[in-house]
Structures are given as structure tokens and as C-alpha cells.
Amino acid sequence: MKKLAIVIPAYKEAYFDKSLESLASQTVKDFTVYIGDDCSPFDLKKTVDRYSDKLDIKYTRFEKNIGSENIVLQWKRCVELSKNEEWLWLFSDDDIVDLNAVESFFSVIREDAKGVADVYRFNTCVIDGDGQVIGDTPIGPAEESSEEMAYNLLLGLRGNSMPDHIFSRKVYNENGGFVFTRYAQAADWATSILFSKSKGIHIIPNAKLYWRSSGVNISSIAYKNKNKMLYGHLQFIKWVINHFEYLKATPRTVKFEMIRDAARINLRNVIMHHYKGVDSKDIPKLISLLIKDLDMSLKESIMEIYGIKRSTSSRINRVVDIIKKITRRDR
């Protein structure tokens, strides 16, 4: 039995060949690749067959597409295709990695002086559809506690995506799998935070993952579906506040109040830059979260949303009317 399962929830065709090519070119191949075809309209099996003599690869086509509505459930059923490999790597159908990525992972777990952790991750570069590097995500330290990583992640000082993680099957099973959010919004962040709670997160040096911003993956076009996806991120904010309740009673470098304040900043930045604003019909739910979960007053919540709308839209008259109505009801 090989030690590493590389699991690919597959749907898109455009860069699938590039992803498999980067795995087929690894300097160490002590892994099995499991493909879970989410009832794609494309002939992914044809691409898989081209690598059947280069990779230990198992292909399954699901008869029903579920990723369009429940990406986390698609991740889960793809992981269930794997056997009993000790390590799980949820890869992507459009990202690529350095050729020494697997070798670097096995090297770091052999040399880990403090014992094997549950979560390891690669530093990440962002590439475009042509494979050109268009940005680097912030580089994390060699080791970091879960709460330190979460705090920096919320402030935009860490990179984090599902394909740049390798985690133990043990921690996956102990926590019941991935953290669910609608459309998997920040589900990768939450899962990373949860899985690293006991032993922290360790960086895999000397190799990088290249996350593709192609304009066709969900993250690239989130703003076009913000009405649906915003609720997923609100679920994440609620989850992270509830998860770190233990910091109130446990002295740590990172305090609960620091996480809460960082969550406020994250929510603002995600709405402004990722979703490119908030629609008026979503304002009441957003205000409710700001008040109940982030301990903001009604006035603070209104001013927060007003600032977001002012920064993302020149048409704020309708928002001002809504704010006035809410304020009058509060009196």
C-alpha cells in the first residue's frame, strides 16, 4: 500500500491534462491518483487514459453531478474512492505543482524533529490560464499553531487553498471529514484550521503549488454568483467564531478577541474584493451576523455596510434608504 493518495474531484477539461502531467513528472511516485469525475460533459476518461502507463491512477465517473450545488460533498465522495493510504492530498483539475513536490513532502515528514504533524502545506504561486506566474501568496513560517495561522489567514497574511494541503487520514476521520459551507466558500480555510488544531501546520519547503486563476474556476468568478456564495462565507465566519471559543478559557498568544476582530476585517475585505460588493437584499442577514457573531452594535454594523457599499458602488442612495428604515425601526 502506498502512503499517499492524491484525490482529484474532476469536472473541467481545460487544464486537466496539465494537472496530470505535473503529477506524472514527479521525481518520487509513491502515490496513487484517484479521479472522481463529477458527471462532466467532457471526456475526462480520454485524458486519464493517456497517463495510465505513467501513473498509478484510478478513474471513477459518477452518474450524478453534485459539485454544482455541494462541492464539499463532491470532495467527500472522491476521498471515499481512496483506500487506506496514510496521507490525503485533495488536488485540483487545473492546478500544477513543482516536480519535486511529493519528494519534498516525504522528506519533511522524515525530518520532522517534533514528530509527524497532521497538516502540511505548500507555499503557493498564482498562475494565469497560460501558466504564467501572476502573483505569490504570502509565505508562512516553517511551523505555526492553528490559531496563529487562522489569525494571519483572516488578515490576508497567509495563503491557503485546499490543493496546497496534505493531511493525515487519521485527522480527516477523527473530525468527520471536511468542514461544510455552501459552495465551499472558505471551506478549505475552515478545514485547515480544524485539522491543525492539535499539532499546528507545517510548511513543505523547496516546492510550490501553482494555483490557477483562469476565469473558469469558482474562485475566479465568485463575484458573478455572490448572491449565493456570500452565504457560504457568512457560514465560515460563524464557524470560525464558534470554533475559537476555546481561546476564551485557554491562554494562548492569539486571543479570542484578536480572532473576532480579524474575522471582521476578513469579512469586509472578502465582500469588497472577492464578491465585489453586497446586494441590498443581503444586508439584513449581514447585519444580523455582525451583531450576533461579531459583537458589533447596530450603528457599527450599519456604518460597516455603508462603508462597503460606498467603496464598491457609486449608487448608494438605495442603501441609504434601507439604513434609514432600519434605524427608524430600532428606535
Automatic annotation (TrEMBL):
Q: Give the keywords, sorted.
A: Transferase
KW Cell inner membrane (keyword) present: no
Q: Pfam family example for this protein?
A: Glycos_transf_2
Q: Does the keyword Transferase apply?
A: yes
Q: Which InterPro entries match?
A: Glyco_trans_2-like, Nucleotide-diphossugar_trans
* Boundaries of every Glycosyltransferase 2-like domain copy: 6-122
- What is the protein name given in its UniProt record? Glycosyltransferase
One annotated GO molecular function is:
hexosyltransferase activity
